[in-house]
Amino acid sequence: MTTTRTAIVLGGSGSVGTALLRELFHDDGFGAVITLSRRPLPDAVTMARTAGRRLVEKLVPDMKPEPLAAATMDAAREVAGDLEGFSVLGVGAGTAKLTLEERRAVDVALNEAFARALRDSGLDSKPHNPIRNPLTFAEDAPVREVTSESFCSSSTWQSEPAPSPM
Question: Residue 149 contacts by C-beta under 8 Å, 6 or more apart in sequence?
């Protein structure tokens, strides 16, 4: 029996997030992708349609820890198969004017809220729905190349190291 896997992605609007979404839409192991973002992601919609995949956009216009956690838990509870969380959320290059506290709110608080919500969603207690912590790596997780120079913090995606010259 084949189990349907769903990816839930936080931070899909940046360049690394777009690369991750592209790979997820072309990975036959995932039947659907859920994105959590402040605004719609038209490029993700196009990629999903082109690949013939299901995309669910969950908008969180007030991107703060509590609303993000609630949206993550709601999305996770709607998933029928396995759920794998991916976070590529971080402060981008165009945010030089942010204070340290504003950067910390994105880089730490939002990622923490996402990870805790996945853990607390209740799906991880069901045998057919293992949730891997999106901020750590499982030793048995397959390594997939997203782009040659990018790194995604998730349990199943990371760039492979460049081969050593002989």
Answer: 159
